[in-house]
Design brief:
This is ERAP1-like C-terminal domain-containing protein. This protein is an all-alpha fold and about 250 residues long. It contains 14 helices and no strands. The N and C termini lie close together (about 10 Å).
Length: about 250
């Protein structure tokens, strides 16, 4: 994958940005930067993003002084949460709840928090952000956080386990909350692709009243996606692995 992307990444010069560039090139740069970071590619941005992250920790206004850095804030926060210690993700989460930042900045911080690779830290934050009795609870922030789980395979699967375990409580709290439960289902089921997981989501669906069309539709969409993922793996996974071996001329 690194080889496939390397030429495009270099051509885009992802660490620089021109104010006059076309919007499509700016968007492509952000996509390539995200891929490079999230998948630890050799021409990626992990060291660069971490340096920017620590600059931000020293001076929270640092990222606002550069147009390109503003666009990439979520990615920079994500790298800090992903590669550094437990306290870093907790710091990001705590900072997202301060009154001195905008709602948009709080949401960008939460997208970064969702990348943490620390199991216990993630579960602590997950419990806190789902707690409607928390004085800082926000439906908007909860929705942003759970949708951001789609950028972390591990955390998305953890959130699915959480969803299964607390399904009755979560359903009662959020099924009337203007799309919140739909977002939770989307973020927690995004990476599911086994028959066992299919049956688990089907069990959740069977517990939903027939009159709750919105939740049923979300679970049906999740089930359809799982079926698609399973069928894709059956049809293409072996072919894709062979192609990668051929492309890289090394065994995976």
């Amino acid at each position: 994958m690194a080889g496939i992307m390397s030429e495009v990444t270099l051509k885009l010069q992802i660490k620089t940005s021109k104010v006059t560039e076309k919007n499509i090139q700016s968007q492509l740069r952000k996509i390539m930067m995200a891929w490079s970071c999230f998948y630890d590619l050799s021409n990626g941005c992990d060291k660069w993003a971490l340096q920017k992250f620590f600059n931000w920790k020293d001076d929270p206004a640092y990222l606002s002084k550069n147009i390109m850095l503003i666009e990439l804030k979520s990615i920079i926060y994500c790298m800090g949460a992903k590669f550094y210690d437990e306290e870093t993700a907790k710091y990001l989460y705590s900072f997202s709840k301060t009154q001195t930042i905008t709602t948009g900045e709080a949401l960008r911080l939460l997208r970064g928090v969702a990348c943490t690779s620390k199991f216990m830290t993630f579960m602590e934050i997950l419990n806190d952000i789902f707690d409607i009795n928390n004085p800082t609870f926000s439906f908007l922030k909860l929705k942003e956080f759970v949708l951001s789980l789609k950028q972390s395979h591990f955390n998305s699967l953890l959130s699915f386990r959480y969803l299964k375990h607390f399904w009755k409580t979560i359903y009662e709290r959020f099924h009337k909350s203007n799309g919140i439960l739909n977002a939770i289902i989307e973020g927690a089921t995004y990476f599911l692709r086994t028959k066992e997981q299919y049956n688990e989501v089907l069990t959740l669906r069977n517990s939903v009243p027939e009159t709750d069309y919105s939740t049923l539709a979300s679970l049906d969409q999740a089930i359809d996606q799982i079926v698609y993922n399973i069928n894709w793996d059956i049809r293409n996974l072996k072919k894709f692995r062979k192609w990668l071996v051929f492309y890289n001329k090394t065994l995976i």
